[in-house]
Design brief:
The protein has 8 helices and 6 strands. It is an alpha/beta fold. It has a domain of 160 residues: Cathepsin B, Chain A (Alpha-Beta Complex), CATH 3.90.70.80. Strands 1-4-3-5-6-2 form a 6-stranded mixed sheet. A hairpin with a 3-residue loop joins strand 5 and strand 6. The longest helix has 41 residues. The chain is globular, with a radius of gyration of 24 Å. It starts with 14 loop residues before the first helix and ends with a helix. It catalyses: Thiol-dependent hydrolysis of ester, thioester, amide, peptide and isopeptide bonds formed by the C-terminal Gly of ubiquitin (a 76-residue protein attached to proteins as an intracellular targeting signal). InterPro entries: OTU_dom (IPR003323), Papain-like_cys_pep_sf (IPR038765), Peptidase_C85-like (IPR050704). Its EC number is 3.4.19.12.
């Protein structure tokens, strides 16, 4: 009988050591697969960012001035702003990854753009606060309170990010941050690193001074999902095929 069995029921000498070695080899293989997929997807996302930038080249961006949050809209104004933002997303073929509105939305949205997951928002906040502390002279003039108190406040989870933290994020991560806003007269805002050329682009939606989400090309996202599935299927097929061929006959 020549049927291959992936799960062995017989025991042989040194089976435990062999099993451990196989497990470690499998883990290394999966890690290598993950890295390869991450590299491919990073390249694809970079292409999509470029496509988004070309599509929005006709938009006039305004100079970004770092500032803390001082204005909060009424419910009526916020509702109108939300519809205006949705219209703009549809107009430019963009989709939002909606993040939790728990006070960490700016950091969650940045995390999603940087790491493809909003769950690393604590790390992002930590890095931004570190940037604020280490480069005090770059940001202190925009903060109308004791700077030490501002940094201590911004360190706390749930504290809203503002335009100062966005500038610090652009500087820290060497990124051009592109905001598609809900403002009536200001559709598009660009925040660029102050003393270095941007190495990447970060796309966020900004709704009525109260919420940030992560932005992607709606058409490109479908492409990325299909590409990810194809990569996984291909790698798993290549991983299992040699094992199936090498299975002993019983």
């Amino acid at each position: 009988m020549t049927t291959c069995r992936l799960k062995m029921t017989h025991r042989y000498p040194n089976e435990s050591a062999s099993s451990s070695s196989t497990s470690m080899s499998s883990q290394r293989s999966e890690t290598d697969d993950d890295r390869m997929i991450a590299m491919v997807l990073t390249e694809e996302y970079a292409k999509l960012d470029g496509a988004m930038a070309k599509r929005l080249t006709n938009l006039t961006s305004i100079p970004h001035v770092p500032r803390i949050n001082t204005y909060f809209p009424t419910y009526s104004d916020a509702t109108m702003d939300h519809y205006r933002l949705l219209d703009r997303l549809n107009q430019y073929g963009l989709c939002e990854v909606r993040v939790s509105g728990d006070g960490n939305c700016q950091f969650r949205a940045l995390s999603d753009q940087l790491y493809r997951s909003p769950e690393h928002h604590k790390h992002v906040r930590k890095e931004i606060v570190k940037q604020l502390k280490e480069c005090k002279s770059l940001y202190e003039g925009y903060v109308p309170m004791k700077y030490k108190h501002y940094c201590k406040k911004m360190k706390k989870s749930g504290e809203w990010g503002d335009h100062v933290t966005l500038q610090a994020a652009a500087d820290k991560f060497a990124a051009k941050i592109c905001l598609l806003t809900s403002f009536r007269d200001t559709c598009f805002v660009e925040i660029v690193p102050q003393y270095q050329a941007p190495q990447r682009e970060i796309w966020l939606s900004f709704w009525s001074e109260v919420h940030y989400n992560s932005l992607y090309d709606a058409r490109g996202e479908k492409h990325i999902i299909l590409l990810t599935i194809c990569l996984w299927n291909t790698l798993k097929t290549l991983t299992w095929l040699p094992q199936a061929v090498q299975c002993p006959a019983f």
